[in-house]
Amino acid sequence: MYHFIQKFHSGWAYLALLILVVAVVNSLIGLFSKKDFTSKDRKIALFALIAIHIQLLVGIILYFVSPLGLDSFGQMQDKALRLTSLEHPLINIIAIVLITIGWSKHKKFVSSESKFKTFSIFYGIGLLLILSRIPWKLWL
């Protein structure tokens, strides 16, 4: 079961990151081109939010069924182990919280510029945080 969840977590990450990148690029294009915020823009941001939350749920399950999991906290000198057992989950949870805040805040705004700006900032910072803590050596 562990290996299936691990492969699913890695595979779904490609899709989740792709959708998140599309949402950030779409919001930046909308912001700089001063276009109207449409239901298409809202759906792109919503799909990114859903994909990232699914990734979080699978990651939490993986964390608790992993043979490394909670037992690895005594071995924080090992950089790779620290990345996968502490830094990756913690920073990605922070990133997902920021993305969720961005989704919630956009609802309060009326102007298209404010909505695109909110998505650009919160989704963009979330994307950068996620990319900073991916265990690239294990993933690629």
From TrEMBL:
<feature type="transmembrane region" description="Helical">
    <location>
        <begin position="86"/>
        <end position="104"/>
    </location>
</feature>
<feature type="transmembrane region" description="Helical">
    <location>
        <begin position="12"/>
        <end position="32"/>
    </location>
</feature>
<keyword id="KW-0472">Membrane</keyword>
<protein>
    <recommendedName>
        <fullName>50S ribosomal protein L27</fullName>
    </recommendedName>
</protein>
<feature type="transmembrane region" description="Helical">
    <location>
        <begin position="44"/>
        <end position="66"/>
    </location>
</feature>
<keyword id="KW-1133">Transmembrane helix</keyword>
<feature type="transmembrane region" description="Helical">
    <location>
        <begin position="116"/>
        <end position="136"/>
    </location>
</feature>
<keyword id="KW-0812">Transmembrane</keyword>
